[in-house]
Amino acid sequence: MAKDFIIQQIKKEFGEREYFSRKELFDFYLQFEPELIESTFRWRIYALKNRKLLTAISREYFTLKYMPAFIPQIGAVERKLSKKITKQFPDLNHCIWSTNIVFEFMLHIPGKFISILQVEKSALEPVYAFLKEHKYQNVYIQPEEKEIERYIYETKTSLILQSLISKAPIQTANMVATITIEKMIVDLYCDKKLFIAFQGNELVHIIDSIYNRYSIDFTKLFSYARRRRKELDIKEFLSENTDIPKIICND
Question: 83-133, pLDDT tens digit by residue?
């Protein structure tokens, strides 16, 4: 079967749809390859993904619509901090980001932002001591609600030090270990007190803006939410409040 022919047929069949299921794609292939088996079908999917013609949005659903991956802009503060942490703790898993990367998705942009450094739980105290030794100001380690209300959003800049959940979805951008769009959505949803400026209707707008502009791996998103023990909560929130199709949230 000619590759170009089947690709054109796939585009005709699914090109106008927002998403379609794995079973639908398999049944479609059976029209042209009646003897198709599961292992060969997986190779068909792999080839389509490799040519950037097919994007998985969850375990069982795909889209033909190309959506770019979100690569956050890394500010000078975060780059400098990353270099220091990597040099001092070369084997430490960590993630650095700033809430100003969320601003492009918002209706009402806050006047202040915070930087967040997440490290392995066992390294929290050594990293905190290292930051204080290097004269970092307004550093808060695992801040409680009172600290957040009284200090963090009352200062011009703050650095939040948190534990990094194991297997959290992170990426490297400009040689800095930083957040993925899936992790950002889950963290904004889960850490309501810390990210109070991003809640309510604003959070709905943020997520809808992301969904309509960037690729989201929902398998990765829900897996991370599960590790934060919020999978069912966030699925319900997304299903009831956002543009994300309910069928994806229930996959």
Answer: 999 999 999 999 999 999 999 999 888 778 889 999 999 999 999 999 999
Shared-domain flag, residues 107 and 163:
yes
Say if residues 182 and 212 touch (Cβ distance below 8 Å): no
pLDDT given at position 17? 86
> Domain range for residue 39?
3-63
**Which of 37, 63, 89 is where one domain is finished?**
63
Average pLDDT over the chain reads: 89
Residue 94 and residue 217 in one domain: yes
- How far apart are the C-alpha atoms of 129 and 119, rounded to whole Å? 13
120 shares its domain with 18: no
Single-letter amino acid, residue 105: F
Average pLDDT score over residue span 147-172? 83
Helix (H) or strand (E) holding 116: strand 115-119
- Identify whether the C-beta of residue 141 lies closer than 8 Å to the C-beta of residue 152: no
